[in-house]
Write a structure and sequence with these properties.
- The complex is a heterodimer of chains A (480) and B (112).
- With 480 residues, chain A is α/β, with parallel strands linked by helices.
- Chain A has a domain at 5-255: Amidase signature (AS) enzymes (Alpha-Beta Complex).
- In chain A, 41% of the residues lie in helices and 12% in strands.
- Chain A is built from 16 helices and 11 strands.
- Chain A has an 11-stranded mixed β-sheet with strand order 1-3-2-4-6-5-10-11-9-7-8, with helices on both faces.
- In chain A, helix 2 (26-44) packs antiparallel against helix 3 and helix 10 packs across helix 13 (375-399).
- Chain A starts with a helix and ends with a helix.
- Chain B is mainly alpha-helical.
- Chain B has a domain at 5-42: Histone, subunit A.
- Chain B is built from 4 helices and no strands.
- Chain B has helices at 5-14, 21-38, 56-59, 89-93.
- The longest helix of chain B has 18 residues, at 21-38.
- Classes of the chains: A alpha/beta (480), B mainly alpha (112).
- Chains A and B meet through helix 10, helix 11, helix 12, helix 13 and helix 14 of A and helix 1, helix 2, helix 3 and helix 4 of B.
């Protein structure tokens, strides 16, 4: 890929050794990236806030270690950026919502703290759909993000800024969040690697909650190897998140070296039905052929409840969102509507003025699904269907090690194309929401382009806590 | 139409949203179109299917245990000093729209 140039060539390992061997400094690298952001981001719109003081303080600390000949941590000097749904102490965090426009968090998200402890330099906070609700980043309350590969098109969403920043060479790696596909789909649209780990693999402490049983933090990078570096850094038990799993963290980077030969790759016809763009289908089928030529065994599997995933997802996700977003009431932080006379009026006008249309729509849908008389028909029903979808994967993973599928039914669509049709926008997540419902890991890796030059993504799902195999297959495909 | 104007008004009240007339009209249209799509869930027989509230319900739960004991994986021994020090008072109120430094100030709740 053209964007990113020399930095892409070096990646995380290259940057660390360059800083370690004093061929450059972490400060010089940060300066270079800020210069690129200031030149290019006016057109892209990936960043909401730059954290230069924090970045240069960290870079100087790394350079001091290098000058003293101390061994550098694995991500030393690596410029990263963070989706603005992860709180950062002293650095404005908005969730791309006006309701948090002036919010300065008093603590750090665990994933961010782990990146910095590993030497990464946080350049700033990235644009996204408001509260991560959307599939195009057009729901940002600030400004949309343009796809670096075609600026008339969306970068995908909700982590559109995270994908675009990597694609445009404005960060070496970024963090995003994925509740229904919000890492994988924008990775696919922007032609970068995006990984959603297993539920519980990465602490959610400090992630502004959208739908707690579906929310995941994960990395974007130019290469599978860099994504593995990022995951290795942020994964693992955190006492501050009771759903974070006490499962050992393998050395994802070292495991990539092992061959993918002999692995069984499942292909489910439910992911190749009507609605799948012909060019996307051809590219993904060719990618699966390539995996076969690398010595993987391709086996048909069935995931029969796939078509029910979107309706189940939009009930579960909005129900959880309606509860999670009840906290935005104008009392403790964030926006408060001015000049109200009663508490009830203050709540309503604050929420009316602070939330955008899609957020209100989801709060309304979720509240409706949880309201008396509808709970069984919608919320409980959706939770039962979630069990069926998860069982589909359990069955399939008895026969195969990973499942390959398209990440999204189409390549990046035009800005404005779906904004007035919420249902059409929801269907952009048709191949990704299943992994959130089941909690299994999934990655999107670039697998070619459409005739118009738009990136296409190959998605690979794996078993719970088997990111190793997912990354290994992705790396083998990438290298072939 | 599953959802009526009255439902929209009722749900908005539950959700502490006011919504303009224009927003209410859009909600009516959008909720009906989304719920119509969601209705395909009723095609599935889920009579004997357990609901799934959490991914961790499936891979870390000891099904032989009862009620909250089943989720023992998520518990820990009490920590006397807490997992980390609490936020200092001034930090905790720093983002408040209105505060006297000790409390959050809100409009009057009870009319006299």
């Amino acid at each position: 890929m053209a964007a990113g140039g020399e930095v892409k060539e070096s990646g995380i390992e290259g940057i660390r050794s360059a800083v370690s061997e004093r061929r450059t400094t972490a400060v010089a690298i940060a300066e270079e990236f800020y210069a690129r952001i200031k030149k290019d981001d006016a057109e892209i719109g990936a960043f909401l806030t730059l954290s230069e003081d924090r970045a240069f303080a960290q870079a100087a600390r790394i350079d001091k270690m290098a000058a003293a000949g101390e061994p550098l941590p694995p991500l030393a000097g690596v410029p990263v950026a963070i989706k603005d749904v992860m709180v950062t102490r002293g650095v404005r965090t908005t969730a791309a919502s006006k309701i948090l426009d002036n919010f300065i968090p008093p603590y750090d998200c665990t994933a961010v703290a782990r990146l910095e402890a590993a030497g990464a330099v946080m350049l700033g906070k990235l644009n996204c759909d408001e509260f991560a609700m959307g599939s195009s980043t057009e729901n940002s309350a600030y400004h949309p993000v343009r796809n670096p590969r075609d600026k008339s098109r969306v970068p995908g969403g909700s982590s559109g800024g995270s994908a675009a920043a990597v694609a445009a060479g404005m960060a070496v790696a970024t963090l995003g969040s994925d509740t229904g596909g919000s890492i994988r789909q924008p990775a696919s649209f922007c032609g970068v690697v995006g990984l959603k780990p297993t539920y519980g693999r990465v602490s959610r402490y400090g992630l502004i909650a959208f739908a707690s049983s579906l929310d995941h933090i994960g990395p974007f990078a130019n290469t599978v190897k860099d994504a593995a570096f990022m995951l290795r850094t942020i994964a693992g038990r955190d006492p501050m998140d009771s759903t974070s799993a006490d499962v050992p963290v393998p050395d994802y980077v070292a495991e990539l070296e092992k061959p993918a030969r002999g692995l069984r790759v499942g292909v489910a016809k439910e992911y190749f039905g009507s609605g799948l763009d012909a060019e996307v289908r051809a590219a993904v089928e060719a990618a699966i052929q390539k995996l076969a030529s690398l010595g993987c065994e391709v086996i048909p599997v069935s995931l029969p409840h796939t078509e029910y995933a979107i309706p189940a997802y939009y009930i579960v996700a909005t129900a959880e969102a309606s509860a999670n977003l009840a906290r935005y009431d104008g009392v403790r932080y964030g926006f408060r509507a001015p000049g109200t006379r009663t508490l009830a009026e203050m709540y309503r006008q604050t929420r009316d003025g602070g939330f955008g249309m899609e957020v209100k729509r989801r709060i309304m849908l979720g509240t409706y699904a949880l309201s008396a008389g509808y709970y069984d028909a919608y919320y409980l029903k959706a939770q039962k269907v979630r069990t069926l979808i998860t069982r589909d994967f359990d069955e399939a993973f008895k026969k195969v090690d990973v499942i390959a599928a398209p990440t999204a039914p189409t390549a990046a669509f035009k800005l404005g194309e779906k904004v007035d049709d919420p249902l059409a926008m929801y269907l952009a997540d048709i191949y990704t929401v299943t992994a959130n419902l089941a909690g299994i890991p999934g990655i999107s890796v670039p697998c070619g382009e459409t005739r118009e030059g738009l990136p296409i993504g190959l998605q690979i799902f794996g078993r719970h806590f088997d990111e190793v195999t997912v990354l290994k297959v992705a790396a083998a495909y990438e290298a072939a | 139409m599953k959802v009526s104007d009255k439902d929209v008004a009722y749900v908005a009240e539950l959700a502490n949203l006011e919504l303009t007339a224009d927003e209410r009209a859009r909600m009516l249209r959008d909720l009906n179109s989304i719920l119509e799509y969601v209705d395909r869930l009723s095609e599935l027989d889920t009579e004997n299917v357990e609901p799934m509230a959490q991914v961790s319900d499936r891979y870390r739960v000891d099904v032989s245990r009862q009620e909250s004991d089943r989720f023992a994986y998520a518990t820990r021994d009490d920590v006397k000093e807490g997992l980390r020090p609490s936020l200092p008072h001034e930090e905790a109120v720093k983002n408040a729209p209105e505060t006297d430094g000790t409390f959050f100030i809100v409009p009057k709740v009870i009319e006299r």
